[in-house]
């Protein structure tokens, strides 16, 4: 479904991504892990179109994604849940979900998607009339994920969904992501600092360091790699 080849991105002449290649097959759960500053968020921004690459190719469902306007990419079935959640604080929970349903598929599937999102995250139904900016961090993350799901995406990109959350809330978020993946067969691309959890749930993973892919493999291969065990799993 998603194929990235030799992607190069720079900020002010300084390389952020250097020859990055990866793929996510349809229905796969793919994790991208690595230290801060490795280029993970830049990768997602390039897929979404808010950052332009110097070189490389991105193909989504066989189409040249770089030839498609950023504003049109959600209509292809790409949903990006950004780092820091970025809900619309002055809108209600329900209005935030409505913003996620702007693509034609979201409008078509509004009732079905709303029912599913509120089943996955019941607090969103309870707080439907509450301003998003008054929610807790964990509730805002649930809303951000729910907003992404309201477009009926084919690819869901999640950037650090556990950031700043208490461990119990982060565990809840991970359990819901696994449930969403199992119930929808959605392709998920996950950037996450909690490496152990990310690799436990993913079908395949990539390790990004200083803008390069330094390791890749199934979760069994990566969790068994001595470098991963020492640098990321504390083993």
How would you sum up this structure, described in words?
- The protein is an alpha/beta fold.
- Helix content is 37%, strand content 26%.
- The chain has ten helices and ten strands.
- It has helices at 40-48, 93-100, 104-108, 110-120, 122-126, 137-149, 167-184, 195-201, 219-223, 226-231; strands at residues 2-11, 14-24, 29-33, 55-60, 63-64, 78-81, 155-159, 187-191, 204-209, 212-218.
- A six-stranded mixed beta sheet has the order 6-7-8-3-9-10, sandwiched between helices.
- Helix 2 (93-100) packs parallel to helix 6.
- The longest helix is centred in the last third of the chain and has 18 residues, at 167-184.
- The radius of gyration is 17 Å and the shape is globular.
- The two termini are 34 Å apart.
Mean pLDDT: 93
| Estimated radius of gyration | 17 Å
Helix-residue proportion? 25-40%
Return residue spans where pLDDT drops below 50 for at least 5 consecutive residues. Answer: none
State the separation between the terminal residues, measured CA to CA: 34 Å
Strand order across the largest sheet: 6-7-8-3-9-10
Number of strands: 10
Give the count of helical stretches.
10
What general outline do the C-alpha atoms trace? globular
How much beta, percentage-wise?
Answer: 25-35%
Sheet with the most strands, sense and barrel status:
6 strands, mixed
Structural class: alpha/beta
Multimerization status: single chain
Which H/E pattern describes the elements? EEEHEEEHHHHHEHEHEEHH
């Amino acid at each position: 479904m998603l194929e990235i080849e030799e992607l190069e991105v720079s900020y002010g002449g300084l390389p952020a991504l250097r020859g990055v290649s990866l793929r996510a097959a349809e229905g796969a759960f793919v994790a991208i892990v690595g230290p801060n500053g490795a280029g993970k968020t830049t990768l997602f921004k390039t897929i979404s179109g808010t950052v332009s690459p110097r070189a490389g190719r991105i193909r989504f469902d066989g189409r040249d994604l770089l030839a498609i306007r950023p504003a049109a990419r959600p209509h292809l079935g790409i949903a990006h849940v950004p780092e820091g959640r970025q809900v619309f604080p002055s809108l209600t929970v329900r209005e935030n979900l409505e913003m996620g349903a702007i693509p034609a598929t979201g409008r078509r599937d509004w009732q079905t998607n709303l029912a599913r999102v509120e089943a996955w995250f019941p607090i969103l139904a309870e707080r439907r009339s509450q301003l998003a900016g008054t929610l807790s961090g964990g509730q805002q993350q649930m809303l951000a994920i729910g907003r992404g799901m309201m477009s009926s995406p084919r690819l869901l990109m999640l950037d650090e969904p556990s950031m700043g959350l208490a461990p119990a809330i982060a565990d809840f978020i991970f359990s819901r992501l696994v449930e969403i993946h199992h119930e929808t067969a959605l392709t998920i691309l996950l950037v996450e600092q909690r490496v152990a959890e990310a690799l436990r749930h993913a079908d395949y993973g990539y390790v990004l360091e200083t803008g390069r892919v330094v390791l890749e493999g199934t979760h069994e291969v990566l969790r068994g790699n001595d470098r991963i065990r020492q640098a990321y799993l504390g083993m």
